[in-house]
Amino acid sequence: MARTDSLGEPLEPGDYVLSASTTSGRMKLGRIYTGQDRYGTTAGVEVSQSFVNGRREEVSRRRQPLGDNVVVLSKADGTIPEAVSEFLSAAQKEA
Asked: Structure pTM?
């Protein structure tokens, strides 16, 4: 799987991500999965929570495609990507 998130972090199965759509206002939280379909290897988000315009919505399909705006919040091994860690540190200093 050679895809990266919006900040350049490689996406790997098991990574916990935020996937967002700028056009629909939809955000999904979940883990990256890979699998096989009739076209070959596929990847997507196994959604744990979904929001539309800031309101939580019922998750109708657990497995959904990855959006274009994806950020890895934590890696499958539990580490936090450097860009996310720097953002959180800066936010704490401002609070």
From this structure: 0.82
pLDDT in tens, the chain (95 residues): 578 999 999 999 999 999 988 788 889 999 999 887 777 777 889 999 999 888 998 887 888 888 789 999 999 999 999 999 998 899 888 87
CB neighbour class for 79 (10 Å; exposed up to 12, middle 13-18, buried from 19)? exposed
- Cα–Cα dist 5/71, whole Å: 5
For residue 4, what is the DSSP state?
B
